[in-house]
Write the structure tokens for this entry.
Amino acid sequence: MAEVVEEEEKPRKSPILKIVLLAVIALVMMGGAVGATLFFTGFFKPAEQPPAEAQLDATAAGAAQEAQKRVDKKGADLPPKMVPKASPELTRFEHTYLELERPLLANLTNSRKVMQVQVALMTRYDDRVFKNVKKHEFALRSAALDVMRKTTDADLAQPEFRKNLADSIRQEMNAVLQKFEDFGGIEELYFTTFVVQ
């Protein structure tokens, strides 16, 4: 009789495992090639700045270093610094404005007339000036009203009256800020409305 020999069948390895392994190796090699290409083309290097921007950055960095050097031993805050404008030819500073929300209303000296003005303030310093203005608005309004109350009918007839009044109010406001914050910073004062009745 013929003997039938049964051979034990060995489990076959799945071809899927080989395919997955080859796919992973191919992905790693492609990622390495892309990374090497980007590295050698300079993709990971920081972009160079145009000369004007580099000069402004250097100026700002120098100003920041100077400000840090000037901090006194007590660690007190320094006065606000001027905010530079981007201009390659020369250094210019950004003008910022703030209009006081409510008008100022005062009686003229020895008169039945009333003066009502709305004012806007201008500075080239950083935002701390306007933060100080908002913080001390009541004191600033009081100082401005004191200056306005000193106005007489004869003052109204002078050709430079509005300019002189604006300058006087600005000086008094800066004195108040100097008193409370050790720095004024209001460079110009403009009347956005001006009524005398």
